[in-house]
C-alpha cells in the first residue's frame, strides 16, 4: 500500500500555473531571467511532466520552475541557442524529438548510445549533455516478472524513440527474442542504434501488423510503445487485428499513462492478462531525470497519488 494520500499533497506553485509555451512565447517570457526546466514535444499539452517535476522542485525547496514547450521543427535550431541561457537548467524530450536532439548536444552518455534516443538534457558548466532515462523507467515495473520473461519472446509495437529504450531494457533483462511490429517492417533494421555487440545478444524479428498473429501465441510479453490509445485518441489500439484470446495469461504493458487503462489494457484485462500501465515508468524515468538535474529524488508515493487523482478525473 502506498503511503501517500491526497490530503498530503501540496504545492508552493499552483499546478494550474504551469504554462504551455510556443517558442515565440518562450522567447518573450520572463523565463529568460528565471531558473527553469522544460518538457519539449509536439503535441505536449497532455503531458503531466510539469505537474510531477514542479511538485518535486517545491518539495525540495528548489528555486526553479518547470513548464511545457510545444516546439515545431522549424524552431529547433533556435531552441538549441536558448539552451545556452544561464536560466535554462535542463529539459525532458518527448515525441517527436528523441532522436533529433542527439547531434545537437555537446555530449551524451552510454544510455543514448544504446537506445539511439535522448529524453533528458542537462545544462551544467557550459556543457549540454543528453541522457536516456526511459530504460530505467521501463524496467522498474517488470523486475518482479524477470524470471518468467528470461529467455522468452516479447512483442513490441512501434519503432520510435520509446521502442528503442524498450529494446535496450529487454536485452538487459535477458529476453531471448523481440518481435518488433511496424507498419514498415522492411525499414526496422535502419532504425536500430549502430552497436552490433549490444544488439547481437538478442534475436530481433521484424513483423508487420498483418503477420503478428503468427508470433503472438508464443509471446510472454506484449508492449505498446506507440501513441495508440493515448488521449485524446483513446479508442485506438495496436491489437485490433489479432484474436484477443492470445493475450490470456500474458503480461501486457502499455507505455501510455493517459488514460491509465487504454483500450489495449482493457482488452488484455478481459483475457486475464497481467496489465501494467505507463504511470510507474513515467514516474521512474522522471525520477532519474530529476536526480541528474538536482541530485535529489522525487517523492514517489505522493506524486503517484497526485497523478492518479488527476488522471482519474479526466
Q: Mind explaining what this structure looks like?
A:
- This protein has 314 residues and is of the alpha/beta class.
- Helices cover 32% and strands 19% of the residues.
- It has 12 helices and 13 strands.
- It has helices at residues 23-28, 49-59, 76-82, 110-115, 134-139, 146-149, 161-173, 196-199, 213-216, 263-270, 279-294, 300-313; strands at residues 20-22, 36-41, 65-70, 88-93, 107-108, 120-124, 127-131, 153-157, 177-181, 203-207, 219-224, 251-254, 274-276.
- The protein has a 7-stranded mixed beta sheet. The protein has a 6-stranded parallel beta sheet with strand order 10-9-8-11-12-13, sandwiched between helices.
- Strand 6 and strand 7 form a beta hairpin.
- Helix 11 packs across helix 12 (300-313).
- It is globular, with a radius of gyration of 19 Å.
- The two termini are 24 Å apart.
- The model is unreliable at 1-10 (pLDDT under 50).
Provide a short characterization of the protein structure.
The protein has 314 residues and is α/β, with parallel strands linked by helices.
Keywords:
single chain, 314 residues, alpha/beta, seven-stranded mixed sheet, six-stranded parallel sheet, 13 strands, 19% strand, globular, disordered N terminus
